[in-house]
Amino acid sequence: MTRLVMKFGGTSMGDLDRIRRAARIVAAEARAGHSIAVVVSAMAGKTNELVAWTDGAGRAAPGLAMTDDEYDVVLASGEQVTAGLLALTLRNLGHDARSWMGWQVPILTDDVHGRARIDEVPGDVLGAAIDAGQIAVVPGFQGVSRTGRITTLGRGGSDTSAVAVAAALGCACDIYTDVDGVYTTDPRIESRARRLEKVSYEEMLEMASLGARVLQTRSVELAMAKRVPVRVLSSFIEPDAAGVLPEKSGTLICDEEEIVEKRIVSGVTMSRDEARISLLGLPDSVDRPAVVFTRLAEANVNVDMIVQSPSRTEGTVNLTFTTGRRDALRAAELMREGQADIGFQDIRVDEDVAKVSVIGVGMRSHAGVAQTMFRALADKGIKFQAISTSEIKISVLIDAAYAELAVRALHSAYGLEAV
User: Fold this and answer.
1) Residue 275: which of 319, 328, 320, 318 has the closest Cα?
2) How far, in Å, CA of 317 to CA of 332, rounded?
3) pLDDT tens for residues 397-412?
């Protein structure tokens, strides 16, 4: 029998009817001869509710250590509920199924509560169980530290759980979600967006980190490192009267070598989760940027685009960088706290910005990609404020009001409606 990991997201686990549909899909794969482990998210909206409860409980009193260990205990319960419900539903359909908590597999992590990273997933015991015919249902998003405490992996962590379990079992991973694959851009913005049959790990990693919400970034990193084939599929399907699933389509995330025809550009993404921070009147010396970014790194604030430009005051420069909106307030506080040491004159924070990116492995071997991008933006009168590039992507920071217009313009400029 061939092993298979299946993952169902929060929308797919949204209520009992959807859990029953997921169970029918799992049952169909079992009848097709697969040994199955299923990874599940909490019901849509449940994690937000649990976070609100932990916030309502209040902070620790003065003198007690600030830690998120009990926060993780509360949040992990959402996935435990859906794991148990799916196992019960599969039993109702006549299948041997049981839930495996993160500490039972075990999914071993570091001890950074709230955003733990997976260290190891021993697959022997779980593999033996599914090979014997049991359907294992594993709650995503959670693990256990070496000291025996429950940990959570951060938002979207169930994708990472699924890929980690697939890597441990040495098999492929099917991720069922509320879309039927990865598209050239968000179909809600551009109606002519097309579903991609295959996307390379590198392209998907860029797409995930730049605003595409189909897969979590760390799950793609892990899939690429462990060479786990990942297929994104719609959970809104039904087996036929004979209990057979439709032929799989969706989007396969795979090695670049498996893609016969390399597209110059595969997709356009947009992220509104951006903030621009500008330090004005910074002394023009080689060590000042190092001081700025050391402070940010020590506080675990991720920085993306960086631009340094001359200031109106002689001997000074303006330093601009971007970060996620969630980190913007903290980053600004760090800069103000260190203003005397850093030496800048003023600081400005702008959250009314968006990042638009074009991604494609074909960029490595084709000239003119940047020219096409900047011409398309210029034709629409869209100014860019910062640029960042890699071998397979170009990102620009623009006024948030023009984000959707920019996405449509770039999608058309690269002919993605014909993919």
Assistant:
1) 328
2) 18
3) 999 999 999 999 999 9
Whether residue 106 has a cis bond before it, omega within 30° of 0: yes
Report d(CA 25, CA 33) in Å as an integer.
13
pLDDT in the model for residue 210: 79
8 A C-beta contact, residue 35 and residue 3: yes
Nearest Cα neighbor of 220 from 211, 229, 299, 87 is 229
- Both tokens assigned to 324: 């996620």
Number of neighbouring beta carbons within 10 Å of residue 200? 23
Q: Average the pLDDT over 371-389 and give the result.
A: 94
Identify whether the C-beta of residue 366 lies closer than 8 Å to the C-beta of residue 264: yes
Residue type for position 107: I
| pTM as predicted | 0.86
Sheet holding 2-8, edge to edge: 97-99, 135-139, 34-40, 2-8, 172-177, 230-234, 251-254, 198-200
* Longest CA span, the chain: 78
pLDDT for the residue numbered 246: 86
In angstroms, what CA-CA distances link 359 with 106, 212, 265, 389, 391? Answer: 36, 11, 5, 10, 9
Contact 394, 206 (CB under 8 A): no
Select from 307, 369, 376, 319 the least CA-distant residue to 343: 319
Q: Is the pLDDT score of 214 beyond 90?
A: no
Output 240 or 260, whichever has higher pLDDT: 240
Q: For residue range 307-329, what is the model confidence (pLDDT) as tens digits?
A: 999 998 889 999 999 999 888 99
The alpha carbon of residue 312 and the mean position of all alpha carbons in its chain are separated, in whole angstroms, by 40
Per the listing, tokens 């009817």 go with 17
- Tokens representing residue 17 in the block: 């009817």
Give the 3-state secondary structure of residue 291: helix
